[in-house]
Amino acid sequence: MVLQAQEGQGRLIAVTGPHVLVATAVPVERDAVAGAFAARPHQVRLPGAVLERLSPEVCGPADAGVTLDLLAAGVGPALAAASTAAALTAAALTGTPYDLVVCAGIAGGFQPEAPVGSLVVADEITVADLGADTADGFVPVTGLGFGTVSHRPPGSLVRELTAATGGRSGTVLTVSTVTGSAARAAELRTLHPRALAEAMEGFGVAEAAAAQGVPVLEVRAVSNPVGPRDRAAWRIGDALAALTEGFGKLAPVLESWNHHDRTD
Questions:
Q1: Dihedral pair phi/psi, residue 77, rounded to 5°
Q2: pTM (2 decimals)?
Q3: DSSP category for residue 99
Q4: Which of 87, 18, 101 lies closest to 56, judged by CA?
């Protein structure tokens, strides 16, 4: 099926094959994803969202027929959720619904399992600080009788992407306050022993995707250890390069993935 959307200059353009929204926090992460492909993206304006599109017509057959819409969604779970929801709704209303949403970017990694420069693919996207502080410790929002705290990406897709990229799979935590001490890092590992990375947008993106029944992934490249904030030890350039390399292997996986089987 061929669907159409409005390009920034007013021309209708086709969307064929898998249609994927990639939500990053900031433009430099968005540009790192775009750097995996030979062609330059072109701008698509939708109500509430401005996207950078990498389409088969632009990228060529080597990019597996996948249309990637890149969105710098903003920092933090609230803005990321709002921006992602706007893009999802606008795409659906213009007849170009998404098959998948990918939250992508750099992150802190829990050592030694997720070293700096490594790629992490979430098999669980969990919000770490949504709940209540009590005399008996932290109680997640689900313990209060509300909402959810985790989303699970499609298992087959996680496995295939991990194999294709050589990355690691595990829990990626979403926080509103980045960890800045060894004590907090240890506390998070106690509460979430499978955690590999920490970032600020994944759960918000996943909530927006879940509200519209669209499966979600989170892919993170590790730029620094989770813990004390030693900016001199951060390797943002290496992490962005790892993100570019990972997305260079993503499109063929999406092409072969049976996106109708979204729950395995």
A1: -65, -35
A2: 0.89
A3: S
A4: 18
